[in-house]
Amino acid sequence: MRRDSGSNMGLMRVKKSNELATLILFALLLLCYGVGNGRCTTVHENSVDLHALLKFKQGITSDPNSALSNWNTSIHFCRWNGINCNMTKRAWRVTGLNLTSKGLSGQISSSLGNLTFLRKLDLNHNSLIGPLPRLNNLQKLEVLYLHQNRLHGIIPDGLTNCSSLSYLDLSRNNLTGVIPPTIGNLSSLVGLSLSQNNLNGIIPQALGKIATLYFVDLSENRLNGRIPDEFWQLQNIRVLYLNQNSLSGGLPQSLPNMSSLFQLALTENMLGNTLPSNIGDALPNLQLLYLGANMFEGNIPDSIGNASQLQELDLKLNHFSGHIPSSLGKLSRMSYLNLEQNKLEANDTEGWEFFHALANCTLLGGFSLSRNQLQGVIPNSIGNFSENLQYVLMAGNKLSGTVPPSIGKLHDLIQLSLDENNLTGTIEDWIGNFTKLQRLNLQMNNFVGTIPPYISNLTQLVFLSIAKNEFTGFIPPSWAGLQSLQTLNLGHNNLQGSIPTEFGNLKQLLQLELSSNKFNGEIP
Ligand SMILES: *[C@@H]1O[C@H](CO)[C@@H](O)[C@H](O)[C@H]1NC(C)=O
Ligand SMILES: *[C@@H]1O[C@H](CO)[C@@H](O)[C@H](O)[C@H]1NC(C)=O
Ligand SMILES: *[C@@H]1O[C@H](CO)[C@@H](O)[C@H](O)[C@H]1NC(C)=O
Ligand SMILES: *[C@@H]1O[C@H](CO)[C@@H](O)[C@H](O)[C@H]1NC(C)=O
Ligand SMILES: *[C@@H]1O[C@H](CO)[C@@H](O)[C@H](O)[C@H]1NC(C)=O
Ligand SMILES: *[C@@H]1O[C@H](CO)[C@@H](O)[C@H](O)[C@H]1NC(C)=O
Ligand SMILES: *[C@@H]1O[C@H](CO)[C@@H](O)[C@H](O)[C@H]1NC(C)=O
Ligand SMILES: *[C@@H]1O[C@H](CO)[C@@H](O)[C@H](O)[C@H]1NC(C)=O
Ligand SMILES: *[C@@H]1O[C@H](CO)[C@@H](O)[C@H](O)[C@H]1NC(C)=O
Ligand SMILES: *[C@@H]1O[C@H](CO)[C@@H](O)[C@H](O)[C@H]1NC(C)=O
Ligand SMILES: *[C@@H]1O[C@H](CO)[C@@H](O)[C@H](O)[C@H]1NC(C)=O
Ligand SMILES: *[C@@H]1O[C@H](CO)[C@@H](O)[C@H](O)[C@H]1NC(C)=O
User: Fold this and answer.
1) In this structure, how many other beta carbons lie within 10 angstroms of the beta carbon of residue 302?
2) Would residue 324 count as lying in a domain?
3) How open is the CA angle 84-87-91, to the nearest 5 degrees?
4) What's the CATH number where 172 sits?
5) Alpha carbon distance 300, 343 (integer Å)
6) Smallest CA separation from ligand 3 atom 3, residue
7) Which atom of ligand 5 is nearest to 116's Cα?
8) Which of 100, 140, 145, 167 most suits a substitution to test ligand 3, by most atoms within 8 Å of the C-beta?
9) Closest CA to 239 of 274, 275, 283, 304
10) Residues near ligand 10 with C-beta < 6 Å?
11) Which are the contacts of 27, defined by CB distance < 8 A and separation ≥ 6?
12) Which of 7, 146, 380, 452 is the most exposed place for a label (fewest CB within 10 A)?
């Protein structure tokens, strides 16, 4: 029932019931709320709600948007901004308090713990400070949203007495201490977010026993210990974010079927060991898998290709070794693949099969294979890759030979990083096709030949480094089009002639490196 129609509806009901006692009570209530004197505060339990709200208002030190402007006793509290009520046992009781994004400062009064009919409490996006209020008695509370405030202190055990809680969001505060082990008492919990706090200690095992859990975000805390095995048994879990903590241990070597799981993020922990070999079979609906910046090792399991819904796969900064599985080519929805900084291998005779297969991923927008142990030439099949490809990062490997000119088919490239390899040959066959390129890094290779004049067609370039190669000839004069250029590094080549005066028109330029060439003449 909405607050704006609440009182009138109640009046009608009371009249219908036609009970003398009710009428008397109602008259008293009218007196109480209509006139606003203090005499009737003991009349009925709903005066408890009135007082709890007034006390809450007292705790608010700043209300820049006048959200509480009509919170005074000349108006029934059920009509106050942000309040929802319901008629119960002939009394109006507060069932909802919603003051999200009102810019409120101050403390949340524990008087809210007296609103025993409260179902939804939403104070998201304010600047409330202090400890969490004592809400132990709120047996009907289903929703508690305190996201993005400035709360500190611990999460009191007593909160887990609110046994109807379905959605609990305390994220983006400065809460400390542990996740109460009694959290398992919240047996109806569906959504839990405690992310971006300062929580430490372990993830309670009991949390993994709440079968209703659908969304769990504990990211960006200081949680340690293992991920409880129970988590992998949660039959309804759809989203699990445990990234940016200090979790250790690993994943079970054989994952149970978790067909409910859509998103799994474990980035930036200390998780290790090998991945379960059936990972892709057990997660048939997974769309996002983020395991980067951990200590995972061994092969990337072939079964990953069976997670047919996968869109984003991030395994960067681990110790994965061996060949990259060709089964990646089965991931027809994949848009993002990051395998950088591992120990993945390929050479001229084997290991590049995956690369041909990736051409099947027609939605692929970018991949990084940088800083692995890939040897040999870049396969010609790069020309068969998705034309949607925007990011190609293969720096810091042992790539050799010439870059296949077929790369020029990737018209949408925004970033091409081939630096720190042993690539040779000229760039003139393909460079002019990348008219959307913003970052081009070819430094530390053995490229030869001249800088083609149509480099000036790359008008979006922000970063250009061809340093530490064997480029020869003159700097083409036509740089005026490169108006976005911020970094230009031509150092350590065999370039000669004069420095084009056009460089002076590159207004965004922050860094210019021309050293160790054979330039002459004046600096313009
Ligand atoms: C109570 O709030 C109403 C609505 O904002 C306002 O018109 C009225 O003057 C206020 N009464 C008192 C006593 O502050
Ligand atoms: C209001 O009360 C009615 C009847 O007691 C109940 O069915 C309904 O769920 C209540 N609504 C809320 C929001 O508490
Ligand atoms: C609180 O109100 C905002 C907008 O006024 C709404 O988006 C939000 O869903 C409400 N919160 C709850 C828990 O219903
Ligand atoms: C809760 O209500 C009781 C009266 O029923 C009152 O004595 C008590 O102070 C209230 N608690 C808080 C924290 O306001
Ligand atoms: C839990 O709530 C019940 C019902 O309101 C109450 O009797 C009990 O004291 C509460 N327990 C704690 C630990 O607050
Ligand atoms: C968060 O709390 C910690 C410890 O209580 C304190 O050192 C830190 O300054 C607080 N951070 C913010 C942003 O309030
Ligand atoms: C996993 O569970 C889903 C739904 O319960 C089922 O459709 C699927 O066949 C199961 N997959 C495996 C490999 O057991
Ligand atoms: C890629 O697609 C081709 C045909 O379109 C198919 O023959 C090949 O098996 C596919 N590769 C993978 C790894 O799915
Ligand atoms: C390629 O790698 C395989 C396995 O690591 C190795 O047996 C083979 O000798 C390598 N071939 C070349 C040409 O390096
Ligand atoms: C470069 O682009 C031009 C014009 O779109 C196209 O004709 C040419 O085939 C492209 N080069 C390569 C290697 O795809
Ligand atoms: C780089 O390639 C050249 C041939 O182009 C070869 O002579 C040289 O040994 C290679 N260097 C490394 C470090 O592989
Ligand atoms: C560079 O752009 C000019 C005109 O903008 C065009 O005529 C020329 O073909 C382009 N060069 C290359 C290599 O794409």
Assistant:
1) 15
2) no
3) 110
4) 3.80.10.10
5) 11
6) 100
7) 5
8) 100
9) 283
10) 405-406, 408-409, 430, 433
11) none
12) 380
506 lines ligand 1 (CB under 6 A): no
Cα 22 to Cα 11, 16, 45, 389: the distances in Å are: 11, 10, 14, 72
Average pLDDT per block of 10 residues along the chain, 524 residues long = 30 32 39 37 65 96 96 94 90 96 96 96 97 94 98 96 97 97 96 98 97 98 97 97 98 95 98 97 97 98 97 98 97 97 95 96 97 97 93 98 95 97 94 94 97 88 96 85 91 90 84 89 76
Distance 72 CA to ligand 2 centre (A): 25
Residue 75, judged by CB atoms within 10 A of its CB (0-12, 13-18, 19+), counts as middle
Domain that holds residue 177: 82-210
**Domain-embedded: residue 250:** no
For the record, the structure tokens of 393 come out as 């990062």
Which ligand 5 atom is the nearest neighbour of the CA of 136?
14
Measure 174 CA to ligand 6 centroid, in angstroms.
Answer: 6
Whose tokens are 């990646």? That residue is 328
Give the count of beta carbons closer than 10 Å to the beta carbon of residue 99. 23
Q: Considering every ligand atom, which ligand is closest to the CA of 447?
A: 11
Number of domains in the chain: 1
Q: What confidence score (pLDDT) does residue 33 get? A: 43
326 lines ligand 8 (CB under 6 A): yes
Classify the phi-psi angles of 468: left when phi > 0, otherwise alpha if psi is within -120 to 50, otherwise beta. left
Q: Answer yes or no: is 137 within a domain.
A: yes
88 lies in some domain: yes
422 within ligand 11 shell (Cβ under 6 A): yes
